Amino acid sequence: MDVMSVGEDAVPAGYKRTEVGVIPENWEVGSVGKFWTVIDCKHVTAEFTSAGFPVASIKEVQSRFVDLTSAKQTNQQFYNLLIEGGRKPQPGDLILSRNATVGEVAQVTERHPPFAMGQDVCLLRRKVIDFSPEFLQAVFQSSIIANQLLNLMVGSTFKRANIEQIRSFAVPMPSPPEQRAIAEALSDVDSLLDALDRLIAKKRDLKQAAMQQLLTGQTRLPGFAGVWEVRTLEQLFDFSGGYSASRNQLSTQGYCYLHYGDIHGASKTYVDTRSDYQDIPKLNISLSQVSPSSLLKDGDVVFVDASEDDEGTSKHIVIVNKDNLPFISGLHTIVAKRKNNELVNEYLRYCFQTTAIRQQFSFYAVGTKVSGISKTNIAKLTLPVPSPPEQTAIAAVLSDMDAELAALGARREKTRALKQAMMQELLTGRTRLV
After folding, report:
1. 231 pairs with which residues across the strands?
2. Nearest 10 degrees: CA dihedral of 182, 188, 189, 191?
3. Angle formed at CA 79 by CA 76 and CA 85, multiple of 5 degrees
4. Are 318 and 299 in contact (CB under 8 A)?
5. Contact 334, 239 (CB under 8 A)
6. pTM for the complete prediction?
7. pLDDT digits (tens, 9 = 90+) for 184-211
């Protein structure tokens, strides 16, 4: 381990080169199976019931601790089969995903009720009581395991790790006191991330509540009164379709192109050709092939005409195109261009997000496996329309809330990046805490 080949960077005094990188000389390196017992859970298929014992599967191990809130349930008979052979989760155990989201790992605590594990996870149990579950959990979330997983998955189209592969993962192992010190430092950052997640969720709920109140007129901002007009979308918009191009025709060259899949996957309700230009897919064709009605202007709204569920039928994007760049609306889209100035641009970003509008979309959606809405039916939807000054005031309030959410999101990303940097330092012993 200490011998270096010619051309390698020098190893600092007190450190050694290992299969997981350069680490302190007094740290061990070995397989997961050397330090932890890895228990397979694939031999019994649970029979699910409406009530009984929770079964932890992939989605239950997506956070720090096993989350059984929406876990499927099994009966006493299958629970007994699932926990045979030492497979009953105990406080301090880790539950690891070994299928699809390989490497996701969550801890079992004393707060968890009795539960069993599904076929696509395995149980990790420490062989030495002083070993820190939080430390190994951090190792699995770090590049130490990610790099080994990458090598494992080369050429594979489906992520999956078997028990022997998991047992063979190489991990660094400092002394238990140093494990706990490292885990505690990282736990402090995790607690900050959890607090930010809760705050973001709270602010998002407040924004949703504010939208429902302000966009329906249940709550009026100071200085505004009077009855709102109710308009059909046919009175407000002209509707047309998009230019059909497949995803594999798109590239980084050509004109901006709005694919319906990008509307479904969008994290916001507008796209700005200035700030988002580099991220917008391009289609390299002559504009003479595209109908003028499919070219998107500032203030246009683009709805999807197909979705895998009713909820998705109301997905839409508002176009911000101040420079009037050629922007082509694509396959499975419905383009809505305003007939008049009754709706303010900024207000458009919010007015289609109310429960009432979504219910109308769901009512008119047709299809079984795929739900769709036609231009004819979307024109029948109704929208309450306040005066333009009130629209502007409402949009300003909601925009401020969006800005606060964006700032919190950026803070969370910085904190997450800080944690990643700390993991690189602490899990390799570059920075020592004891």
Report:
1. 383
2. 140
3. 135
4. yes
5. yes
6. 0.83
7. 999 999 999 999 999 999 999 999 999 9
Domain co-membership, 146 together with 118: yes
Is residue 309 located within the same domain as residue 242? yes
Residues 168 and 179 both lie in one domain: no
Count Cα atoms within 13 angstroms, Cβ side, for 195: 8
- Residues 353, 249 share a domain: yes
Adjacent-strand bridge partners of 241: 334
Q: Could you tell me the CATH number of the domain that includes residue 91?
A: 3.90.220.20
Structurally, the chain folds into a number of domains equal to 3
Neighbours of 112 (CB within 10 A): 18
Is 10 inside any structural domain? no
- For position 404, which CATH number holds? 1.10.287.1120
Burial-class residue 215 by CB neighbours within 10 Å (0-12, 13-18, 19+). buried
Q: Are 280 and 257 in contact (CB under 8 A)?
A: yes
Whether residues 72 and 169 share a domain: the answer is yes
* pLDDT, tens digit (0-9, with 9 covering 90-100), for 55-71: 999 999 999 999 999 99
Instruction: Look up the domain containing 419 and give its range.
Output: 174-218+394-434
Name every residue whose Cβ is closer than 8 Å to that of residue 143 and which is 6 or more positions away in sequence.
Answer: 423, 424
What H or E segment, with its residue span, contains residue 404?
Answer: helix 388-426
Residue 99, amino acid: N
